Amino acid sequence: MDFSFLSKKDRGNIEKINQYLGMSHRTKPYDFNKSEDIIEASSFITAEYIDFAHYWRTLSNIEEDFDESLEYYYPAAWTNMGLENSTNDEVLDEAVLCIRDASEIFYKLMDRAEERCKKIWYYILLNAPEQVKEYFFGDVLSFKKELVEDVLKEELFEIFLQTDYMLSIEEVAKDFAQKLLKRL
């Protein structure tokens, strides 16, 4: 299982910040022969996806809400936006573009995290050691490859929507796993 990790320079920088600030960010690659490393990696990957999906969704909502504000408070600018792709107001145009750009960037981050999330859960569901499955599902379960592929491809975002965002990294991953299990 290959999940790109840190360069030597980045590892050194993290070691320094860990030392100076008393933190304990991981600096060594995950060993996918160890159940505890699989659990930790999948917890972080899942939480990353949940975070970025949450940020993207928040920005999308802001984009929609702002469009509605333009419609109500600046109807001429809103109409111009639809007809000319500009409000003809420099500040409003900048706001529209900044929100749109931020939303697009976070969509890309979410999409990248989603691919990593699919990859790790595919591994967990079909190939992970028993200890990993017991950790996430409370039992050693078997799943059909076709169903796993379908659920991970078609339903990951829906699972995100049902996952409790305010949990810790480990709790988010377990909550996500339980929501995923219900779809299998």
Description:
- The protein has 184 residues and is an all-alpha fold.
- The chain has one domain (36-183).
- The protein has eight helices and no strands.
- It has helices spanning 8-21, 35-73, 75-84, 90-127, 130-137, 145-154, 156-162, 169-183.
- The longest helix is centred in the N-terminal third of the chain and has 39 residues, at 35-73.
- The chain is globular, with a radius of gyration of 21 Å.
- The two termini are 23 Å apart.
- The mean pLDDT is 93.
At a glance:
The chain is mostly helical and 184 residues long.
Low-confidence stretches: none
Instruction: Describe the sheet with the most strands.
Output: none
Strand content: under 5%
**Backbone structural class:** mainly alpha
Keyword list:
globular; 0% strand; 184 residues; mainly alpha; single chain
SSE arrangement:
Layout: H1 8-21, H2 35-73, H3 75-84, H4 90-127, H5 130-137, H6 145-154, H7 156-162, H8 169-183
